[in-house]
Amino acid sequence: MTRVPLVDLNDQIVEYKERDETTPRDRLRIAALWLTNTKGEILIAQRALTKKHHPGRWAFACTGVVDEGETYEQTIRRELREELGLTGLKMVTGPKFLTDELDGYKYFCQYFLATKDIPLEEFKIDLTEVAAIRWIDPNELIRESEKYPDAFIVFVEKWREWIKEGRPF
Predict the structure, then answer these.
(1) In angstroms, how far is the first alpha carbon of the chain from the final one?
(2) Can you give the residue ranges of every domain in the chain?
(3) Among 63, 64, 80, 92, which is least packed by CB within 10 angstroms?
(4) 33-44 per-position pLDDT tens digit
(5) Cα separation of 147 and 140, whole Å?
(6) In whole angstroms, what is the distance from residue 92 CA to residue 79 CA?
(7) pTM of the model
Protein backbone atom coordinates (compact mmCIF):
# COMPACT_ATOMS: atom_id res chain seq x y z
CA MET A 1 0.00 0.00 0.00
CA THR A 2 1.09 3.54 -0.72
CA ARG A 3 0.70 6.27 1.85
CA VAL A 4 0.10 9.88 0.83
CA PRO A 5 0.46 13.09 2.82
CA LEU A 6 -2.64 15.02 3.79
CA VAL A 7 -2.09 18.76 4.05
CA ASP A 8 -3.71 21.84 5.58
CA LEU A 9 -4.65 25.10 3.85
CA ASN A 10 -0.99 26.16 3.98
CA ASP A 11 0.16 22.95 2.23
CA GLN A 12 1.74 21.70 5.46
CA ILE A 13 1.59 17.96 6.14
CA VAL A 14 -0.82 17.11 8.95
CA GLU A 15 -0.99 13.31 8.61
CA TYR A 16 -0.57 10.36 6.26
CA LYS A 17 -3.14 7.91 4.92
CA GLU A 18 -3.15 4.91 2.65
CA ARG A 19 -4.01 6.23 -0.82
CA ASP A 20 -7.03 3.92 -1.12
CA GLU A 21 -8.39 5.18 2.22
CA THR A 22 -8.49 8.88 1.33
CA THR A 23 -11.89 10.58 1.25
CA PRO A 24 -13.20 13.84 -0.25
CA ARG A 25 -12.60 15.50 3.14
CA ASP A 26 -8.84 14.92 2.74
CA ARG A 27 -6.61 17.50 1.06
CA LEU A 28 -3.89 15.89 -1.08
CA ARG A 29 -0.94 17.06 -3.15
CA ILE A 30 -0.60 16.51 -6.88
CA ALA A 31 2.05 17.46 -9.40
CA ALA A 32 1.26 18.20 -13.04
CA LEU A 33 3.29 18.94 -16.17
CA TRP A 34 2.38 21.66 -18.68
CA LEU A 35 4.48 20.57 -21.69
CA THR A 36 4.66 22.67 -24.84
CA ASN A 37 6.69 22.43 -28.03
CA THR A 38 8.38 25.24 -29.98
CA LYS A 39 5.26 25.56 -32.18
CA GLY A 40 3.34 26.57 -29.03
CA GLU A 41 1.29 23.37 -28.94
CA ILE A 42 0.40 21.77 -25.62
CA LEU A 43 0.74 18.05 -24.94
CA ILE A 44 -2.43 16.61 -23.43
CA ALA A 45 -3.03 13.04 -22.31
CA GLN A 46 -6.24 11.05 -22.21
CA ARG A 47 -6.49 9.16 -18.95
CA ALA A 48 -6.94 5.40 -19.19
CA LEU A 49 -10.53 4.19 -19.00
CA THR A 50 -9.60 2.09 -15.96
CA LYS A 51 -8.55 5.10 -13.84
CA LYS A 52 -10.55 5.76 -10.66
CA HIS A 53 -10.58 9.53 -11.19
CA HIS A 54 -11.58 11.07 -14.52
CA PRO A 55 -11.36 7.93 -16.69
CA GLY A 56 -11.12 8.77 -20.39
CA ARG A 57 -10.82 12.51 -19.85
CA TRP A 58 -8.11 14.67 -21.36
CA ALA A 59 -5.70 16.17 -18.84
CA PHE A 60 -2.16 17.46 -18.37
CA ALA A 61 0.77 15.84 -20.18
CA CYS A 62 1.16 13.86 -16.96
CA THR A 63 0.07 14.17 -13.38
CA GLY A 64 0.20 12.24 -10.14
CA VAL A 65 -0.48 12.21 -6.43
CA VAL A 66 2.52 12.94 -4.22
CA ASP A 67 3.46 9.86 -2.19
CA GLU A 68 4.88 9.81 1.33
CA GLY A 69 8.50 10.96 1.32
CA GLU A 70 8.29 12.60 -2.12
CA THR A 71 8.51 16.23 -3.13
CA TYR A 72 6.33 17.65 -5.87
CA GLU A 73 9.31 17.51 -8.26
CA GLN A 74 10.13 13.89 -7.43
CA THR A 75 6.50 13.02 -8.09
CA ILE A 76 6.38 14.65 -11.53
CA ARG A 77 9.66 13.01 -12.53
CA ARG A 78 8.32 9.60 -11.44
CA GLU A 79 5.09 10.17 -13.34
CA LEU A 80 6.97 11.29 -16.46
CA ARG A 81 8.97 8.08 -16.43
CA GLU A 82 5.98 5.84 -15.65
CA GLU A 83 3.34 7.42 -17.90
CA LEU A 84 5.32 8.79 -20.85
CA GLY A 85 8.70 7.06 -20.70
CA LEU A 86 10.59 10.36 -20.36
CA THR A 87 13.63 11.06 -18.22
CA GLY A 88 15.91 14.07 -17.88
CA LEU A 89 13.35 16.66 -19.02
CA LYS A 90 14.40 20.20 -18.08
CA MET A 91 11.51 21.78 -16.18
CA VAL A 92 10.84 24.92 -14.19
CA THR A 93 8.50 25.18 -11.26
CA GLY A 94 5.29 26.90 -12.23
CA PRO A 95 2.30 28.07 -10.25
CA LYS A 96 0.74 26.15 -7.38
CA PHE A 97 -2.89 26.46 -6.46
CA LEU A 98 -5.55 24.88 -4.28
CA THR A 99 -8.71 23.40 -5.72
CA ASP A 100 -11.68 21.96 -3.89
CA GLU A 101 -13.48 20.54 -6.90
CA LEU A 102 -11.64 17.65 -8.52
CA ASP A 103 -13.96 14.65 -8.18
CA GLY A 104 -15.03 16.22 -4.90
CA TYR A 105 -11.46 15.90 -3.61
CA LYS A 106 -9.29 18.80 -2.49
CA TYR A 107 -5.80 19.19 -3.94
CA PHE A 108 -2.82 21.45 -3.94
CA CYS A 109 -1.62 21.24 -7.54
CA GLN A 110 1.98 22.17 -8.29
CA TYR A 111 2.59 22.77 -11.98
CA PHE A 112 5.89 22.18 -13.70
CA LEU A 113 6.55 23.79 -17.06
CA ALA A 114 8.70 22.56 -19.92
CA THR A 115 9.18 23.12 -23.64
CA LYS A 116 10.55 20.34 -25.81
CA ASP A 117 9.95 19.10 -29.32
CA ILE A 118 9.14 15.41 -29.02
CA PRO A 119 7.39 13.51 -31.80
CA LEU A 120 4.45 11.49 -30.49
CA GLU A 121 6.04 8.22 -31.60
CA GLU A 122 9.00 8.85 -29.25
CA PHE A 123 6.82 8.69 -26.14
CA LYS A 124 6.53 5.31 -24.45
CA ILE A 125 3.09 5.59 -22.91
CA ASP A 126 1.88 3.19 -20.25
CA LEU A 127 -1.58 2.16 -21.44
CA THR A 128 -2.67 1.35 -17.89
CA GLU A 129 -2.25 5.07 -17.12
CA VAL A 130 -2.71 6.86 -20.45
CA ALA A 131 -5.03 5.94 -23.32
CA ALA A 132 -3.64 8.48 -25.81
CA ILE A 133 -1.57 11.65 -26.12
CA ARG A 134 -1.61 14.48 -28.61
CA TRP A 135 -0.19 17.90 -29.28
CA ILE A 136 -2.90 20.55 -29.53
CA ASP A 137 -2.92 24.22 -30.46
CA PRO A 138 -3.95 26.34 -27.42
CA ASN A 139 -6.89 27.91 -29.26
CA GLU A 140 -8.10 24.49 -30.37
CA LEU A 141 -7.86 23.32 -26.75
CA ILE A 142 -10.10 26.21 -25.72
CA ARG A 143 -12.61 25.47 -28.50
CA GLU A 144 -12.71 21.73 -27.78
CA SER A 145 -12.99 22.17 -24.02
CA GLU A 146 -15.87 24.62 -24.45
CA LYS A 147 -17.66 22.35 -26.94
CA TYR A 148 -17.02 19.11 -24.99
CA PRO A 149 -16.49 20.14 -21.35
CA ASP A 150 -17.04 16.61 -20.02
CA ALA A 151 -14.13 15.34 -22.13
CA PHE A 152 -11.63 17.34 -20.06
CA ILE A 153 -10.70 17.49 -16.39
CA VAL A 154 -11.97 20.43 -14.39
CA PHE A 155 -8.57 22.16 -14.40
CA VAL A 156 -9.26 23.14 -18.00
CA GLU A 157 -10.75 26.38 -16.65
CA LYS A 158 -7.30 27.28 -15.33
CA TRP A 159 -5.79 26.39 -18.71
CA ARG A 160 -8.23 28.68 -20.54
CA GLU A 161 -7.29 31.52 -18.20
CA TRP A 162 -3.57 30.97 -18.78
CA ILE A 163 -3.90 30.61 -22.55
CA LYS A 164 -5.95 33.81 -22.84
CA GLU A 165 -3.38 35.65 -20.71
CA GLY A 166 -0.47 34.21 -22.69
CA ARG A 167 0.77 32.24 -19.69
CA PRO A 168 2.17 30.18 -18.06
CA PHE A 169 5.43 30.84 -19.92
Answers:
(1) 37
(2) 3-165
(3) 92
(4) 999 999 999 999
(5) 10
(6) 16
(7) 0.88
